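Archive transcription. Copying these from loose printouts into the bound notebook so they stop getting lost. Printout 1 of 2:
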Amino acid sequence: MSHHLSGPDLRSPMGDARLDMTDLFAFTVPGDRTVLIMNAHPAVPKEGSAFHPDAVYRINVDTDGDHQADVAFSFVFSPPQDGRQTVTVFRATGQQARDHEAGGEKIVSGGPVAFGAEPRTVTSGPFMFSAGLRSDPFFADLEGIAQDFKWTGKDWGADKNIFSIALEMPSSELGPDPVIGLWGRVSLRQDGQLKSVDRGAHPSLTAYFNPENSAKTAYNEAEPAQDWDTYLQPWTEVLQHTGGYDTQAAEEALRTVLPDILRFDRSKPAAYPNGRALTDDVTSARLNMVSGGKITSDHIGPHTDLQTQFPYLGAPHPEPASL
């Protein structure tokens, strides 16, 4: 189910929904601007939740194709108090971008987090930023998938809310090459140490390819630069089992998602796996991949509450459903 519930036993990492990265989006908008959106916390309840104050939420950007972060945006949230929370946004470059700690230039300091129906947007130099409660854009017939692909027509995400982190900037802020690579990460500080508890870029990988709990935990802690060497063989075996692939066909298919970095050529329109627009049917794309073309769609379409203006996600549902 996209990247929702990417921890052991199909639960959130550390059993904490606040640490659960759900989706990563990358697309361009008019004016030669790039939008990056990272969502977290599947099925936010009606009230009483916020971003984790001991976590570092991060969007990593590879600008030269070496599978290492060259630019990193880190988001650190204050402890919630009286229904309010603030966020500080850091932009790191070079070697500092490869450290999981939040570092570099502060581009937003003490920005407001929106828990109501209206987003709160901060403009800082060339950046637009917003964080808070929004409607989850993820769509899929998860019940049908769980029932051995007997489709129900029910969209699991139709009534869910998430916490969203959205950035919009001139495309030049991410380097002159239109091709970039992206992945998200959530790290948690415990006993003075920062530990990566979730990471990913392409949707629905760990759900299909990392069935063992130990594999899920190791994956969430790892760096994408090691993905090809680590996961080529076991993931090839998964595709051979689920889709009847031979070794060569499996390797060709896996080159799209390994390493787990979302490539985006910004000279072309975003359409997964070239970036990811909010309306891209990633569930059907993954079903088609793992089934070897036997299952091409779950017959669920994109949400209609998306906005044409920043931060682009729809207003939160007033009576959200729980998991």
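Printout 2 of 2:
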Amino acid sequence: MTDSALLEAVSFDEAGLVPAIVQDASTDQVLMMAYMTAETLRDTLDSGRMVYWSRSRQERWVKGQTSGHTQMVQEVRLDCDGDTLLFKVEQEGGACHTGYESCFYRRVEGEELVADGEKVFDPDAVYDDA
């Protein structure tokens, strides 16, 4: 499938976004979920590096641009409805801005959330809030 054929097959929502689920290509661990626009999807396909749309900041977001924790695309899949993308990536460093390997590091245990993921970096040492 060509990049243009994939872009045509994707059903973007009314805001022009499509969810992107990201898995580690070697372990199949789900690392994160983010959103993409047609432009960030095109940038991802062209560069081989994950590029997202930040809904909170309303701007393009290149994964790892600040942290150095990049995601290189190994495989792209589109679900049956065309409204969700799945990327298998080679993850460098942690995927989660909190320092964990995966954004899904918490599990429900009874009525509590328990952290059981691996913290792989110190976010205070990576991100400058100034």
